[in-house]
Amino acid sequence: MRTILLIGAATLALTGQAGAKSFLTGDTTTQPFVYNCAATIGNVIDVGDEAQHTTKAVFGTNPGGGEGGQFDKTPVLTTRVTLTDGACLDAHFSADMGGQDLYGTSQMAMFQVTLTNLQTGAGPIHMFGHYEKPYGIPSPAVALGPEPDVDEIGANFFQHVGTGRHDVPPGVYRVDVWWAGSPVVGPTSAATGAAFVLKLYNH
């Protein structure tokens, strides 16, 4: 089995299993949208957890976490950031994920990075850089299909603060990293991983 994911203009191929579900659905209803922001870096926030963790949440079974409710209810990482009008927030996430052959996990581990406004309660809202409808479900995600032992996921996201499409208003936000296994699951658990790191650049 070989899984390939290019984040952004995402392309994914699942082979080696007859009738396997596809992360990308070929949905063409979403209009092309180019999003951007630029600013000078003001400060950097890092949060991480090196311990090994396992989630039994499976995407598509409504476990309740994240935007769209398809992730574990408990974020794997959480921090806080204050966003001012016109600012850009960049996020880089990485983790070592266990493969199906050795750990009995799903064929893919799925992640979502969101913002929740702590003053208004709005959210969670995914940062720009996710695929909008994995498996046709409106719960944006990025994903990794680990090889037999472990692979590292590295994903980038960004967010503009303002009033435009996909923008969020100024405020104090909780930043959460949610995770789950894909609908193609293994015999024991949905996803297992370690060395979770989230780096935020607040412009």
Give a written overview of the molecule.
By secondary structure, this protein is mainly β. It is built from one helix and twelve strands, in the order E-E-E-E-E-E-H-E-E-E-E-E-E. It has one domain (42-202): Jelly Rolls, CATH 2.60.120.40. Helices cover 2% and strands 42% of the residues. A hairpin with a 7-residue loop joins strand 7 (109-117) and strand 8 (125-126).
- Please compute the radius of gyration using only Cα atoms: 16 Å
Structural class by SSE content: mainly beta
- What is the overall pLDDT average? 86
Biggest sheet statistics: 5 strands, antiparallel
Annotation, overall tally of beta strands? 12
Shape: globular
Low-confidence stretches: 1-19
Q: Based on the structure given, which CATH architecture is correct?
A: Sandwich
Number of helices: 1
Q: Can you tell me the CATH topology?
A: Jelly Rolls
Keywords for this structure?
203 residues; mainly beta; Jelly Rolls; 5-stranded antiparallel β-sheet; 1 helix; 12 strands; 2% helix; 42% strand; globular
Explain briefly what this protein structure is.
The chain is 2% helix and 42% strand. The chain is built from 1 helix and 12 strands.
Topology readout:
Blueprint: E1 2-6, E2 11-15, E3 43-49, E4 53-55, E5 77-83, E6 88-98, H1 100-103, E7 109-117, E8 125-126, E9 142-144, E10 150-160, E11 171-181, E12 191-202
Antiparallel strand pairs: 1-2, 3-12, 4-12, 5-11, 6-10, 6-12, 7-8, 7-9, 7-11
